[in-house]
Each structure stands twice: as structure tokens, then as C-alpha cells.
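Example for tutorial group B:
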């Protein structure tokens, strides 16, 4: 049996699929290869994956109600990792329909596939954006995250609720992962590190929102993949001590949980840019701008639960991570 990875030609999906293939797993990748960003980058990732004998690719949209059931019927995956989604906070302000189609309808089709052919474990991507303007720092999975401030975050909150319903009704073990500002080689062109690098090398100014005072829990992609791989064969069990009068938002009487995947430390955005300047050996021209709708001042993951459950220990500094990204970018774009 194979591991089904949706969004396999995407940023995190590519890195996870490659890691699984390198350790000898069979991977069935599902990706629509849409044009949200340069399809050539997705095609390049896919070419690498198709070089592994254990990889099989299916090009389709998760929202396709006709074809998705056949994927599960044919592959009967032992594990499902749902990483396909319409990403981006600001893009959701202009294209809300896309987020509902990809993130809600698409995830429903994944859940229905798991209902028909139950996997040992369903893993799916959530987001740190789900915490909204939460004042408690670092963000803990044991705190209620019920006030998302963007549609993107709201669709991910819906995913967590939908997964819980299917875990409760059909016993599907499900773990949601709240990712914190993931970066690294093969990243998306709409992400800050990619845009900053491109602009700096071209001698163009970079837009820095929040007057540069924002802080983020920058998490290197390999550390994210470490967490996902560690979780594959550690499905959640029912929390026998779960109290319906004082419900823990992170666990359930059903086989369901949510976990943070982050570095567990805040970094100033300006420090991030400073490291990038050092690795590029070129100064940035900065255009300071006010906060954008949907942005938050700071994020930081409380990873105590993740460490306890998965022995999770992210170790990549931004100095190392940014250096790896710059090395990849220069090689890929030959600059």
C-alpha cells in the first residue's frame, strides 16, 4: 500500500514526498499543477519526484467529486497526508471562492475517500494563522483558536472541525498540523524570502509591512518534514480523560488532535532580512509600509505538546536555513 500525498508538487508536499521516497516508501502524489504561481517550478519539482521508481503522479483537483473517489478506490492508501490547499493570506481577500473550493470542498472529498477506505492515519495541513490576534504568546494548541481574521485561516479552522467530525463519526485517526512561516529551497514565489531574494538581486526595493516591526516563527522546511514523518505511524488515540465540561481544544474523545509545527522561537523580520543580505552579500532597498489586512504582529509556536508526542526537535537556525535557500535559488535561476 502507498502513502497518498496531496499537493505533492507544492512546496511542503514535494519535500515530504522526496523524504518518503528516499526512505523506500511508495508515494501516490495528487496535484492539479494549477497556475497560482509559476507552473514551471511545480513541473521541476515533479520531474525530481518522477525520477524515483516508487512515485506515481495523478493530476487532478481535489474538488473534483467525480474523480477523487476513484483515487481512493484504486490506491487504498495506508496513510493520507493532505497538503494541497490554496495558500496565501492576502490572496484570499481577492479570490475567496478559490479558497472554499480548494480548502473546504477539496478536503471534504479527501475525508469521504478516507471514510470509504480508512487509512491508518490522516495527516492534514492547518496553519498558525488560525490563532488570529491571539494575545497569549507562544501560541498553544491547548488555547481556543476560534477567531480567525482571514478567510484562509477560516477555511483551515473548518478543516480541523471537519476532521474532528469524521474522527468522531467514523473513527478516522486524524492529526492537524498548524504550520508556522515555513521557508526553504523550492519555496513558493509568493513567500517573503523568495520575493526578497528576487528583488534584492535585481536591485529593486522590497516591501516590508508593519514598518519592519513584525516577528515570525520562521520554520525551515526540513524541520516541518521531520514532524510529519515522525507522526505518520503515531496516530492519535482517544483522550480517555477528555472532559466535555472543560474541553481541551487540542484533543478529543475521538481519535483526533492538533499540533503546532514551528521552530518555537520568534525572530524579528528585520533580522531575517539582515541574514538574507549577508548571504546574498548585497544590501536591500527597503520600502516600509503599514500592516496589511489579515496580518498579525507576531507568531511563535508552543511546541511542548509536539515534542512530547513526536519527540519533535526543530534544529535549523535562520542563518543555516536562509543560506540553503540562497544556494538553491542561485543554482536554480543561475544568478
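The residue assignment follows.
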Amino acid at each position: 500500500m502507498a502513502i497518498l500525498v496531496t499537493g505533492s508538487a507544492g512546496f511542503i508536499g514535494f519535500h515530504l514526498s522526496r523524504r518518503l521516497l528516499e526512505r523506500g516508501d511508495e508515494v501516490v502524489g495528487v496535484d492539479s499543477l494549477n497556475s497560482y504561481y509559476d507552473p514551471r517550478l511545480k513541473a521541476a519539482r515533479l520531474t525530481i519526484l518522477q525520477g524515483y521508481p516508487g512515485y506515481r503522479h495523478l493530476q487532478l483537483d481535489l474538488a473534483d467529486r467525480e474523480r477523487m473517489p476513484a483515487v481512493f478506490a484504486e490506491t487504498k492508501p495506508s496513510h493520507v497526508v493532505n497538503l494541497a490547499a490554496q495558500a496565501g493570506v492576502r490572496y484570499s481577500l481577492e479570490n475567496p471562492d478559490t479558497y472554499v473550493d480548494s480548502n473546504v470542498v477539496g478536503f471534504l472529498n479527501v475525508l469521504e475517500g478516507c471514510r470509504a477506505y480508512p487509512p491508518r492515519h490522516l495527516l492534514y495541513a492547518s496553519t498558525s494563522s488560525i490563532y488570529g490576534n491571539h494575545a497569549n504568546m507562544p501560541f498553544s494548541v491547548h488555547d481556543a483558536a476560534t477567531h480567525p481574521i482571514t478567510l484562509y485561516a477560516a477555511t483551515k479552522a473548518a478543516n480541523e472541525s471537519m476532521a474532528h467530525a469524521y474522527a468522531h463519526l467514523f473513527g478516522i485517526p486524524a492529526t492537524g498540523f498548524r504550520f508556522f512561516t515555513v521557508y526553504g529551497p523550492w519555496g513558493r514565489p509568493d513567500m517573503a524570502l523568495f520575493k526578497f531574494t528576487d528583488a534584492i538581486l535585481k536591485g529593486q526595493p522590497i516591501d516590508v509591512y508593519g514598518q519592519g516591526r513584525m516577528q515570525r516563527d520562521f520554520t525551515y522546511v526540513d524541520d516541518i518534514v521531520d514532524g510529519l514523518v515522525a507522526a505518520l505511524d503515531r496516530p492519535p488515540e482517544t483522550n480517555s480523560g477528555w472532559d466535555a465540561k472543560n474541553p481541551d481544544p487540542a484533543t478529543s474523545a475521538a481519535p483526533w488532535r492538533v499540533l503546532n509545527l514551528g521552530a518555537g522561537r520568534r525572530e524579528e523580520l528585520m533580522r531575517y532580512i539582515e541574514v538574507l543580505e549577508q548571504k546574498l552579500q548585497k544590501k536591500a532597498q527597503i520600502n516600509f509600509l503599514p500592516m496589511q489586512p489579515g496580518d498579525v504582529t507576531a507568531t511563535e509556536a508552543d511546541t511542548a505538546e509536539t515534542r512530547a508526542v513526536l519527540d519533535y526537535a526543530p534544529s535549523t537556525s535562520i542563518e543555516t536555513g536562509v543560506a540553503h535557500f540562497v544556494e538553491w535559488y542561485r543554482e536554480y535561476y543561475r544568478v
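The first strand starts at residue 3 and ends at 6. Compare this with the pattern of hydrophobic and polar residues in the output above.
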